[in-house]
Amino acid sequence: MMKQSLLLLSCLALSACSTYQVPDSPTFTISGPWAIMPMENHSNTPLASQKAEQLLATELYVKGVATIQYPATINQDLRSILDFSSKQQQAQQWLATQPIEYVISGSIEEWHYKSGLDAEPAVGVTIEVKSAQTGEVYWRASGSRSGWGRESVTGSGQVVIEQLLDGLNIEKSRSTD
């Protein structure tokens, strides 16, 4: 009885460290690559969105989704690094030249270590899948997680992105012979 109580208490403690809002997803057929577009960085961590975009590409690859990312821009000054609208505009111009059906993007709400003795990582991410042609949002999910003292922010971010993408209903296209 003591072991069962301890196990239940451990599960409750672990689940209290994360929150996910992952609605049912429509079925997405993989017929070609998806474009990963710039994610908005609302956190106080510079370049957090680029880190999340790389994790997103990896997790989609694991699920069998080929992705291409918007071309990197060469930033010469601080303003161009911090100006999301300029980056978004350049990425949209690139997207208009690509034969893409689905676009995946989102935002980073949190991506840092908490203050204090253990300095636990804290991550908050929103992901959405849109039509490349119309911009209509087909699916959106968000999640947040606080990790443990020896865990990295990237590790926590990977867990959040993986949990969110587990909500996507992806069907590989069938070949017709």
Automatic annotation (TrEMBL):
Keywords: Signal. This is Penicillin-binding protein activator LpoB. Residues 1-21 form the signal peptide. Gene3D superfamilies: ABC-type transport auxiliary lipoprotein component. It comes from Vibrio sinensis. The keyword Signal applies.
